[in-house]
Amino acid sequence: MNNFLKRGSLLLVLCLSMSAFGQNRWKSTVQTYLNENYTELGVTSEDVQSFGITDEVPTKKTGVWHVHIVQQVNGLDVINGVANITIAPNGEVVAVGNRLIAHLNDKLSGSGSAGIAPLGAIQKAKERLALSGQMGTALTPDATGALRFEGGTLSQEDITARLVYWNAGEDVRLAWVVGIYQMDGEHWWQLVLDAQDGQELHRYDWVVRCTFPNHPEEAHVHSHESMSAPAAIAPAAPAVAPASNGAVYNVYPLPIESPSHGSRALLTNPHDTAASPWGWHDTDGMAGAEYTITRGNNVHAYTDTTDNNQPDFEPDGGTALNFDFTLDLNQAPGAYKSAATTNLFYMNNRIHDVMWHYGLDEAGGAFQETNYTGVPGASDEVRAEAQDGGGLNNANFATPPDGSSGRMQMYLWTGQSSGDIVTVHTPATISGTYPAGLANFGPAITTTPVTADLALAYDGVTDSLDVCDSIINPSDLLGKIAVVRRGGCSFVSKVLACQNAGAVGVIVVNNLGAAAGMGGSSASVTIPSVMVASWDGQDIIDALVQGDSVNASLSLPLGFGQDRDGDLDNGIIIHEYAHGISNRMTGGPSASGCLGNEEQMGEGWSDFYGIMMTMDTAFGVNPARRPMGTYAVFESPTTGGGIRPVPYDTNFATNNYTYADRANANISVPHGVGFIWCTMLWDLNWAFIDQYGYDPDLIGGTGGNAMVFRLVTDALTLQPCGPGFVDGRDAILLADQLAYNGANQCLIWEVFARRGLGASADQGSPNSRSDGSAAFDVPLSCQVATEAPTADFEVLVDTTCDGAFDFIDLSFNVPQSWSWDFGDGTTDTLRNPSHTYSATGSYTVKLTVSNDLGVDSLIRTNYVHYIAPTDNPAVAGGSGCSADSIQLTAVGNATPLWYDSSLQLVGTGNVFMAPPSTTTQDYFVRDAIVYPTEYIGPADNSIGGGGYHATTYTGHVNLDASVPLTIKSAWIDADGPGIRVVNVYDSPDALGNIIQTVQLNISQGGIQRVDLNIDIPSPGEYSFGLDQAGLYRNNTGPSYPYEVAGLMTVNAPEAGPDFYYYFYDLEVTRTGCEGDLVQVTATVTDIIDFSYAVNNQTVQFTDASPNATSWSWDFGDGNTSNQQNPSHTYGADGLYTVTLTTDGGTCVKTEQVVIGVVTLEEQDVLSAEVFPNPAVASVTIQLAEPLVSEAELSIYSIDGREWFRTTLERGTSEEELDVRTLANGVYWIRVESNGQELREKLVIQK
Questions:
Q1: Over 60: is that where the pLDDT of 993 sits?
Q2: What's the whole-number mean pLDDT along residues 25-50?
Q3: Domain 118-205 belongs to what topology?
Q4: Which is the most buried residue in 853, 888, 1115, 1192, by most CB within 10 A?
Q5: CA-to-CA distance for 270 and 113, rounded, in angstroms?
Q6: Helix (H) or strand (E) holding 128
Q7: Cβ neighbour number for residue 1025 with a 10 Å cutoff
Q8: What class, spelled out in words, does domain 933-1074 have in CATH?
Q9: Which of 9-23, 235-249, 350-364, 1164-1178 ranks highest by mean pLDDT?
Q10: pLDDT tens digits along 856-866
């Protein structure tokens, strides 16, 4: 299935639910498809369980159906949650234009009932638009459920208010859509207002205004066109027409673009018998015209010079329907309003009839008063307003949904006082029209030409062509138009001199600069004269000097000095009508608003239809220079610059614009963006003409131009709502597959690639024209080899611990086949294969590529390395004194990682120096392959505006992993402490399966870095996030994508590219490989370990110090001993500091303890065991005999700090203590009772 499955955010589409009209033929097919493919569509199963069908449109040419759906909540449409699904006649879904909303229910925000009534919403809309009129009375709701009110003095059309849901990225809110058509006709607003408080959420205008600025004349351009009559667009092969009414129209027939391009012709019954079977004046589907004025089923044309949007004049052809009216372009447009309105009527009908065959028929949204087939959507003929008084130098078209009339407003174009007055007929090298300035003296130049050969006038002195002295060649000037230079004397004297020599006219060549008017006065001058630019005049002089016979005319262009009427410019009429075509065919006829995004190409399609329907090969062959709108701006029909940045032309010397220019400052939105799109379509047209030839019959023709006309039109119905350039390109490719079995795929690719919309081009968000990237490549399948290929390749990562490698072909000169040898006895023929080795080692890789012209190979020796860590690295412990670091070693295949007893990483490498310790410590080591840490994403939230975010919407980070990896930590800004639970999904947009859950214990609010330790198991697209986050998120400022090549890319979330959620400055590392943990011991050799027992004044000391070979005791009363386990009797009660120094040969260690001696008459001797020792979480003290009196138990460190104290009750023989709060180290346990003291050493080792 070729499809458009990628979701994209959408500005607005006003979908009108048509379920009341029985649009449910394909509901079960669509539901089944959505249930089976929701994951691929990027939504959840819940998101596609409630939807309405807005349109089901069959197509005549391919037999496919276009089904348009809208998501619903509580029975209300989510007006920008839509999809168009193309279904083959056999029921197979062949394409999806996807703008569905993911996590729809999670995004619901606010109340489920409206807080303001519809009248309140209308009042809010009125205030937002700063309108002053008053609406009328309530009407019956329409078929969509929208409430209707008479427009009154507030709106030209009925005011509508419809309750819907509106998606604003991360919030879906209940909203009113209020429709108001301003009384001046400039805007037909659709305002989306929050149903709770009336705040404006969005607005969209159904009126597309096409400003055509006057284009400055080009400095040095001549016209070389022939004015021969062009071929007409042939009508369809006639069906049996119900009636032939003999209607006659005197108009500029297609493909004539304007009065500049050809002459009027008298047409009889020009209606297409399939599209308009009852003629152009019928509305009831029965024989006989219902109107004799310029009104019928497809259009009502009239003048609206008073700008009240009502007819103030309508030509009447009488019962004979004879619309043959005079036209004098030298008169003001008001003098020929019948002819102009007739031309407007003809063009609207002709466009209707042509487009009817391409899918804009009754089911597809045609503008018709009566749908003869009975399908819904009638009563919407175009209201075409000629010579509209609402503006100048402009035109517009309003496109409401099917069933409501479109409105075309055509304006006048202000006249000029200069123009192409000189026309050179011969020689061909300089023939064409030249701008010239008029003289203030002599007879006026008129539209009746003064034609003669040209001759240079000489006076025989310096600057002899200025004729400021007597002319020396008067015989050469007799009966001719004299050519002289400016300067040296007055214009009048120059002209008089030539007149006296017998000249019939004078052309003065400016000495510097462009053409200009000539001042002066004289009643004696009786011949016409003009001035031309220095560069134009020099061309004429050069031709005469070299002996060429130059013949020319002096005359005013038709309408010179008069305003021009846009109703006679067929190109502009088509352009305006085409806004109705593109708006009704994109998104379905019941939607009007799919072309409001920044990268939409509506102006481009309008130009395309304008230049395609007026295309005439008599004006030249490829490369074809085609300016747009030259008549309206008083320019030469083919060599003028037109109203676009440059003319349309396949020649880059004239038009070198590409997709890369769409965001240039001189490219406006939407006209400039559309200009670039039409540039591509014009190239496509000529590429097809070069391949298949030209056919003037757009309806039934088989030429390349007719094929492109069909592909571009079919693509409108295939592309998603809110399209960008890539969407439009892909739709044309799909249209070719459906219409021509994909026969032209490479031809299409080559055209688009030439203009930067190649296979690797990325449009980014269709809501932005500045976030995409151009590319000039075509798919490899479309490349043609011109020489033998050159092999080249790379591997994504050259060292792995799992044996898996991804190879990338970089060969050039069009390889057509690939043969890989991985060096382990295995091969592959894929272009970019993945391979997993079964054994560790370094491998040599070879790639052989070939095409029809040769073979090439490349060998990379020992290129990839499979290094698996050993499970049992060779280890060696160490020993030393407590004051020294002890060396531990490990040797494996990779990098040893060292951990302490609590498995915290403490070092890397073959050697680890254990820090000084008073006790023997156990460490653990494993062999591992580790990768460097990278940081991805914005460093913090300072990139733009935002705030703390806590809703039911799952804010998320979308990522595309190139390799398995770990996201170790992130920068966050929390609104307060608390637990946050983060879910990790195996799909973008928080969809798919949850593969990991991470609990964040945030202890305080504010900025901080948190550990995530999210494990991404394999390459692919993932996401992670949470709802009710209470974390900062940006709603402006992100610049997607954020990328570390070969590791990971962070892409825009489902809510749109303006949002960045919660987790900044991601600390990421590629997942390594690890062997098993192996224990290694750092032995401390100078540990002092002794205990003592006090009995009255006698103390028994017991030494258990390992590795000691000599002992030195100082009992604190002046007595000493060198015994290992001495007994000492003190002479008096008191506290004594006892010091033991041990010597093990390499380490000398000293330790002190304070003991108390008390003489009692009767007491028990204390003794006890301590276990387990070393201890981790708890320790037990077991006394030899139960206590005969209370005792104090304490734990203190060897530096004398007390960490724990408790009282033991009389009779206690065993006590268990919780030591989880004690850090690793050596402690003393002391028990004191009735003057007796017991001390035992305790080691904590976790």
A1: yes
A2: 94
A3: Nuclear Transport Factor 2; Chain: A, (3.10.450)
A4: 888
A5: 55
A6: helix 118-129
A7: 23
A8: mainly beta
A9: 350-364
A10: 999 999 999 99
Residue 217 has pLDDT above 80, yes or no: no
Among candidates 341, 347, 336, which has minimal Cα distance to 301? 341
| CATH class belonging to 19-109 | alpha beta
| Residue 1047 token pair | 């590791």
Dihedral sign (CA 1049, 1054, 1058, 1060) = negative
Has residue 85 got a pLDDT over 60?
A: yes
Query: Distance of CA 702 to CAs 167, 698, 710, 1013, 1145, Å?
Result: 44, 8, 10, 62, 106
Burial 29-53 (b: 16+ CB within 10 A, else e): bbeebbeebbeebbbbeebbeebbb
- The distance of Cα 495 from the centroid of its chain, to the nearest Å, equals 64
Helix (H, G, I), strand (E, B) or coil at 47: helix
pLDDT 10s digits, 129-163: 999 899 999 888 877 778 999 999 999 899 999 99
Task: Provide DSSP, 1007-1033.
Answer: EEEEEEEEEE-SSEEEEEEESS--EEE
- DSSP conformational letter for 316: B
Structural tokens at position 6: 């990628």
Q: State mean pLDDT over 1143-1148.
A: 84
Looking at residues 386-401, what average pLDDT do you find? 92
Helix (H) or strand (E) holding 383: strand 382-386
* Average pLDDT over every residue of 65-87: 95
The one-letter amino acid code at 206 reads: W
Query: Where are the domains positioned within the chain?
Result: 19-109, 118-205, 419-554, 617-772, 793-866, 874-921, 933-1074, 1087-1244
How many residues are given for the chain?
A: 1246
- The rounded distance, in Å, linking the Cα atoms of 647 and 644 is 6
Q: How far apart are the first and last CA of the chain?
A: 60
CB-based burial label for 504 (10 Å; 0-12, 13-18, 19+): buried
Q: Is the pLDDT of residue 957 over 70?
A: yes
Instruction: Count CB atoms within 10 A of the CB of residue 871.
Output: 13
Reported in sequence order, the residue ranges of 182-321 that DSSP labels E, i.e. its strands, are 188-194, 200-205, 207-209, 248-251, 265-268, 299-303
Q: Which residue(s) pair with 268 in the sheet?
A: 248
- Within the chain, what is the greatest distance between any pair of CA atoms? 162
Can you tell me the distance from the alpha carbon of 545 to that of 550, in angstroms, rounded to the nearest whole number?
11
CA-wise closest residue to 911 among 877, 881, 882: 877
Given a cut of 50, whether residue 12 has pLDDT beyond it is no
Token pair in block for residue 887:
């060396």
And the tokens for 314?
Answer: 């309508």
Domain 419-554 belongs to what topology? Answer: Glucose Oxidase; domain 1 (3.50.30)
pLDDT at 8: 44
What's at 1053, amino acid-wise?
P
Q: How far apart (Å, rounded) are the C-alpha atoms in residues 946 and 455?
A: 76
Average pLDDT of the chain is 89
Among 1195, 1202, 1199, smallest CA distance to 1228 is for: 1195
Locus of tokens 């490989």: 1073
Contact residues for 165 (Cβ-Cβ < 8 A; gap 6+) = 73, 76, 77, 78, 79, 81, 108, 172, 173, 174, 175
Which CATH class, in words, describes the domain spanning 793-866? mainly beta
Superfamily of domain 617-772 in CATH is Neutral Protease Domain 2 (1.10.390.10)
For 337-344, what is the mean pLDDT? 98
> Distance between alpha carbon 1077 and the CA centroid of its chain, in Å?
49
Burial 1134-1158 (b: 16+ CB within 10 A, else e): eebebebbbebeebebebebebebe
The reply to whether domains 19-109 and 118-205 share a CATH topology is yes
Q: Identify the CATH assignment for 1087-1244 out of 3.10.180.10, 2.60.40.10, 3.30.60.50, 3.90.1150.10.
A: 2.60.40.10
